């Protein structure tokens, strides 16, 4: 699999610190800016009807979506337009860390402004959860909490910084994880501040 050694492993999640240097982060932020211009960020609702604090969009052949009917992938942006293609710089990170020929179907773009957070959850809306999930952090630092493959129990948390990449696979693929908070002003990468997280998934 990966030919690049990770810096640390937390509860099975491999963390690659500053895999992307500043230039690479700037390039990726520009490419994600193009994605967001074509497929604007929206605020999903949980199946229970609450507005999520994270704003989202996607690139690829499908995008992650949530409303009163549940969590799922949808073939087009809620506006009815196709999702834009996954930027090449993002696909390169997937190829580098997974060593797979199979490319991801979806790049979910999460934007955390202000007090946005993401509750503990598993990534399990994909047809085959044997494929890894690769997660890229850009912008402000975030407190990333990692639990267990069941709900509850002990957790550990670490700060993810701009340019860090996390890989969830093998025994950690279905681990519960979430974002407690984002610390404003810790990065000047994004105009207007905030944090972007990209998660790459094989969906079908
Ligand atoms: C996610 O679990 O979808 C996002 C994780 C993160 O923002 O780092
Ligand atoms: Fe997730």
Produce the secondary structure layout.
Layout: E1 8-10, E2 13-16, H1 22-38, E3 55-60, E4 63-67, E5 70-74, H2 88-98, E6 106-112, E7 118-121, E8 133-139, E9 141-146, E10 156-160, E11 165-168, E12 177-183, E13 195-201
The structure holds succinic acid and fe (ii) ion.
Quote the beta fraction.
Answer: 25-35%
Q: In CATH, what is the class?
A: Mainly Beta
What share of residues is helical? 10-25%
Shape, please? globular
Order the strands across the largest sheet as they lie in space.
Answer: 1-2-11-8-13-6-3
Structural class: alpha+beta
Largest sheet: 7 strands, antiparallel
Overall number of strands? 13
Average predicted local confidence, pLDDT: 97
Describe the structure.
By secondary structure, the chain is α+β, with helices and mostly antiparallel strands. 14% of the residues lie in helices and 34% in strands. The protein has a 7-stranded antiparallel beta sheet, covered by helices on one side. The longest helix has 17 residues, at 22-38. Bound molecules: succinic acid (SIN) and fe (ii) ion (FE2). Succinic acid is lined by residues 110, 118, 135, 137, 142, 144, 160, 177, 179, 197, 199.
Supply database-style keywords.
single chain, 204 residues, alpha+beta, Jelly Rolls, 7-stranded antiparallel sheet, 4-stranded antiparallel sheet, 2 helices, 13 strands, 14% helix, 34% strand, globular, binds succinic acid, binds fe (ii) ion
């Amino acid at each position: 699999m990966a030919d690049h050694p990770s810096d640390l492993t937390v509860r099975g999640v491999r963390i690659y610190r500053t895999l992307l240097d500043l230039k690479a982060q700037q390039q990726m932020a520009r490419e994600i800016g193009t994605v967001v211009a074509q497929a604007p960020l929206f605020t999903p609702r949980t199946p229970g009807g609450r507005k999520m604090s994270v704003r989202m969009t996607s690139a690829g052949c499908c995008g992650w979506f949530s409303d009163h009917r549940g969590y799922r992938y949808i073939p087009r942006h809620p506006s009815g337009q196709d999702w834009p293609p996954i930027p090449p710089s993002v696909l390169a990170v997937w190829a580098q860390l997974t060593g797979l020929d199979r490319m991801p179907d979806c790049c979910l773009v999460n934007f955390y402004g202000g007090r946005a957070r993401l509750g503990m959850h598993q990534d399990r809306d994909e047809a085959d959860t044997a494929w890894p999930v690769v997660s890229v952090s850009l912008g402000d630092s975030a407190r990333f909490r990692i639990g267990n493959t069941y709900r509850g129990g002990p957790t550990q948390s670490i700060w993810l910084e701009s340019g860090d990449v996390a890989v969830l696979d093998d025994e950690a693929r279905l681990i519960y994880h979430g974002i407690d908070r984002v610390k404003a002003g810790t990065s000047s990468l994004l105009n207007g501040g905030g944090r972007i997280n990209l998660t790459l998934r094989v969906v079908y």
